[in-house]
Amino acid sequence: MKRFIYFSLILLSLSACSPDTTIVFNISEHxxxxxxxxxxxxxxxxxxxxxxxxxxxxxxxTVIEKEKKKAKxxxxxxxxxxxxxxxxxxxRESTFRVTDSTISTHITVTQAGKNx
Length: 116
Known about the structure:
Distance between the termini: 88 Å
Strand content: over 45%
Radius of gyration: 22 Å
Largest sheet: 4 strands, antiparallel
Strand order of the largest sheet: 1-3-6-5
Oligomer: single chain
Number of helices: 1
Order of helices and strands: HEEEEEEEE
């Protein structure tokens, strides 16, 4: 009987320590379009990781972390994307990366060319 109780306690303690492996990684939008004049857009990322980053964005886009808040078990990040004016008549397109410590995805951003 002692062995059964001891074994049961070990199983109980192991099951209590097992980590939750549910991955949360949601992005409000995967594509953004800007007019030639530029402008601002917000992207919201929900993750159960403590760090979310945006990198490899083009030089005509500026990214600022605007807000970071806890919502139950998850973190909500709001980033501000600002596109500079496109002085070219050609449109432009690029992708950049959004990453937490477990998942990475790409966002596509386009901007219209300047009309003559």
